[in-house]
Write a sequence for this structure.
């Protein structure tokens, strides 16, 4: 299974659509959005995808985002944290703006893969037995080019793609 990870889209429809096109071309099966969608309108772009969304610090309309997810054909998840067993791997996601939550997830040993956003910087590190991935950012202020990440859960490899 290929897992697509994106974050910090900050209402950038064009970059988000471009990222989704890359995910389609690379035959990604599931998406995790690591927060800062910003408005409920962005959820519509994920119609038809098996997606999980975590709230970011700029996602202020939590009720509107949850309602948008409920209206979208899906399967979808939305919340402050995401946890799942995907292809035998324990996967968790949070936005990253709450450093205590991010540190707990990366250091607890409860996850094989932790995904996060917030910092607008690509990351692929190992903390103990946990792989920690941040895809970079698609919107907002960036110090790096816009990027996403694709993780092949079977081979446990990660690839960043510029958008």
């Amino acid at each position: 299974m290929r897992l697509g990870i994106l974050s910090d889209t900050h209402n950038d429809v064009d970059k988000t659509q471009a990222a989704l096109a890359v995910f389609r071309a690379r035959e990604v099966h599931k998406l995790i959005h690591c927060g800062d969608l910003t408005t409920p309108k962005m959820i519509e772009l994920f119609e038809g995808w098996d997606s999980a969304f975590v709230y970011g610090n700029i996602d202020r309309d939590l009720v509107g985002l949850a309602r948008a997810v409920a209206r979208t054909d899906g399967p979808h998840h939305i919340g402050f944290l995401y946890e799942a067993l995907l292809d035998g791997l324990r996967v968790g996601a949070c936005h990253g703006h709450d450093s205590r939550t991010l540190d707990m997830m990366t250091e607890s040993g409860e996850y094989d893969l932790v995904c996060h956003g917030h910092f607008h910087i690509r990351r692929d590190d190992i903390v103990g037995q946990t792989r920690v991935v941040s895809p970079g950012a698609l919107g907002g202020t960036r110090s790096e080019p816009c990027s996403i990440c694709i993780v092949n859960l079977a081979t446990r490899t990660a690839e960043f793609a510029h958008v």
